[in-house]
Specification:
This protein is mostly beta strands. The protein has a single domain, classed as Beta Barrel (Lipocalin). A 10-stranded antiparallel β-barrel has the order 1-4-5-9-10-11-12-13-14-15. It is elongated, with a radius of gyration of 20 Å. The chain starts with a strand and ends with a strand.
Length: about 220
């Protein structure tokens, strides 16, 4: 299976404080102007037997914000002076390996649950004339994977799928709701809305964000 997804993504919330216990809170969507961005996600998968599924996902994300702040801001050990033109870049690339077992599998309904191992490659960069600061973070996050497909007729269906988990250290949700249409026995397309939300609050970093995707995807199955 090969899956390709594209469209546009916008930010409705992106609050940052670094370090998490001392830095100044900055909203990359309210204090600065955040631009929408084009995105691409790629997934490759393989079905073992009838109900066992494994897949690998590459989901890059890069967003930019800019503007003037009327006060000094401390970010990652650098003080950005008031009324300076501030450019921010938010990167959150995700690499995931998923196993899912299809509990229900028939022509009308497909439902499965599984586990996802997620590796995040994140960075927040702040620039102003004469000043630069960067905070990078790479880490592993376990997530619960789920997929529900309900076919309305022979070709049209509704799809809900994603990865999500909440813990005291933070939370992460990546959920897609879309309409699916089977173009052939091997290919289908989908269009819908994807929500990416989550964050963490600790001494090193405070960051909670929410991204909305207008999504168009195509899946080709080798069978």
């Amino acid at each position: 299976m090969i899956d390709f997804e594209t469209g546009f993504v916008s930010t409705s919330k992106n609050d940052v404080k670094i370090p998490g216990d001392q830095g100044a809170m900055i909203s990359l969507t309210e204090d600065l102007a955040a631009a929408s961005s084009f995105f691409v996600r790629l997934r490759a998968g393989y079905r073992l037997g009838e109900r066992h599924n494994i897949s690998a996902l590459f989901a890059p994300l890069s967003m930019k914000s800019n503007g003037f702040l009327p006060y000094d801001v401390s970010f990652a050990g650098t003080v950005f002076l008031a009324d300076s033109m501030l450019d921010a870049k938010y990167k959150f690339n995700s690499y995931r390996l998923t196993y899912r077992y299809d509990i229900v599998l028939n022509r009308k309904v497909e439902f499965g649950l599984g586990l996802t191992a997620k590796l995040r490659d994140a960075a927040i960069i702040m620039r102003a004339p004469g000043y630069y600061a960067e905070k990078t973070n790479t880490g592993f996050v376990p997530l619960i994977n789920f997929r529900l497909l309900v076919m309305m007729d022979d070709r049209l269906g509704l799809l809900l799928e994603g990865d999500a988990l909440a813990a005291p250290q933070g939370r992460a949700e990546d959920i897609l709701f879309s309409a699916l249409y089977e173009l052939s026995d091997k290919m289908h397309m989908r269009a819908g809305y994807r929500l990416l939300e989550g964050g963490a609050d600790n001494d090193e970093v405070y960051n909670f964000s929410m991204f909305s995707y207008g999504s168009l995807g195509f899946t080709y199955t080798f069978r």
